[in-house]
Amino acid sequence: MIILISGNGYMGKTFMAQKLLEKYKVPYLSIDHLKMGIYRSNSNCGFTPLDSTEVIGDKLWPIIKGIIMTNIENNQSIIIEGCYILPHYLNDFEKPYADKIISIFLGYSTRYIEQNFESKIIKYRSVIEGRGRLEEEDTSEFAIKTYMEENDEFRRRCVETGEKFFEIDKNYQEEMIKVYTYIDSQKQKIESKLKEGDDIL
Fold first, then answer.
1. Strand order across the beta sheet in which 78-81 lies
2. How confident is the model at residue 132 (pLDDT cuts 50, 70, 90)?
3. Which domain holds residue 75?
């Protein structure tokens, strides 16, 4: 079983991966750590940490895809989280692999961003890793508008590729329960197929 968690910044992806690790006893990989490990080992790796999500994603995806396929082939489970998993990448998997992947794409509605950008979204950023605690966050009107546009673009990509998109609209905690419930249901489906002897590889 592979669980992929993606979405724009400040969505709580790492926190969610940590919670799933505790619940399922399945390790997780932060793509941010992979990114920085590659860059620090070779600054000529083809990207910098300041490049766009697309540039970094395109460089890292072949590695991430290989990790996913190897885990599936070895009947191992892993949770992988990071904004660099773009919806269209999942089209790379043939059905035997795709059937063992649970993909989660997260975003906020425009209304939620307007009402909660500084008080909730920025305030609770990086609660697991503690990144950016000492940094001054930009909460200007321009920053909020840019963040909305990024969320809209991510939502559009999910719709175009047919990937399930979970949008937080009113209450983060309550609506995230639906995401965890979805993961549980998909996990049960995968496990049922295996119990029935439907080994997809």
1. 28-30, 78-81, 2-7, 101-108, 165-168
2. very low
3. 2-186
